[in-house]
Amino acid sequence: MKRCISGLMVTLILLPSQYCCAQNKIKIIRSAFTRTPQAIERQIQTRIGIAQLGHRVGLAQQPDLLDFRTDKKYAYWVLERKVAEHTIPNPKKLYGPYGYLKTISSLTKKHKELVRIEAYHDWHNIQNVQGYNGVHHLISKSTIAMIHADLKQKGIKVSLSEMQYNAPSIFHPLHGHPTYQEVFHDFEQQYHDYNRFGMKITVISLLERIDEINAKLGFPLMKERYLEGILSETELWCRTYGLNY
Question: How far apart are CA 173 and CA 159, in angstroms?
Fold first, then answer.
């Protein structure tokens, strides 16, 4: 992998929605002259002990640049994904922390020219939904809040907003559709499964149910590499906030 954008030609401009947090920091890199988006940068911060997990997550995202640095306490993986005209892929191929996908979604809404031509229809359908930007928390915000309350009772002090911002997420055209609320937002079932089996099995179960919908309606099934990437993101999230993976 090589650096695609010269540091002399760009300046870092943070989106208004940026949230500085322990696990991820997301930036938009724009041209210093035209202010057009040039790349999305994601910085993953991990404890030294789980640095290799951060590396695995970074590699799975197939960035144009993957840099590493460390200090006495933390390891930092910096991923840079180049964006230019017709480079952002179909939303069904993307996954990652909620804040990361939200940034990509915002870009496609403001700069439609960045979307690959064959993916325009799918992005249009997501952006056309009223009331949310199309990013789907695999583990619902309500479930995360319940788990956070349990962690607090155990004396584990972590930020609920950070947990929700960094939670593993995907895009799906039926997220928010009333017919499929039981699949996408059954927080009681998610909470039950998490407490009984842990987060890995809970997420696998959710992905299997979503793929059942995909098969029924003729949508593409999730590829193995995509599923493995989601599980890596889920493990990093759990290790960061003290959840049972």
Answer: 30
Tokens of 12: 């870092």
Q: What is the number of helices (H) and of strands (E) in the chain? A: 9, 8
Contact status, residue 103 vs residue 166, Cβ threshold 8 Å: no
Taking the C-alpha atoms of residue 76 and residue 68, their distance in angstroms, rounded to an integer, is 6
Residue by residue, pLDDT tens for the chain (245 residues) are 444 433 322 333 333 333 234 589 999 999 999 999 999 999 999 999 999 999 999 999 999 999 999 998 999 999 999 999 999 999 999 999 999 999 999 999 999 999 999 999 999 988 876 555 589 999 999 999 999 999 999 999 999 999 999 999 999 988 888 888 899 999 999 999 999 999 999 999 999 999 999 999 999 999 999 999 999 999 999 999 999 99
Residues facing 78 on adjacent strands: 43, 67
What is the pTM assigned to this prediction? 0.89
Look at residue 88 and give its three-state secondary structure.
Answer: strand
Q: What is the DSSP string of 199-239?
A: HHHHHHHHHHHHHHHHHHHTPPPPPHHHHHHHHHHHHHHHH
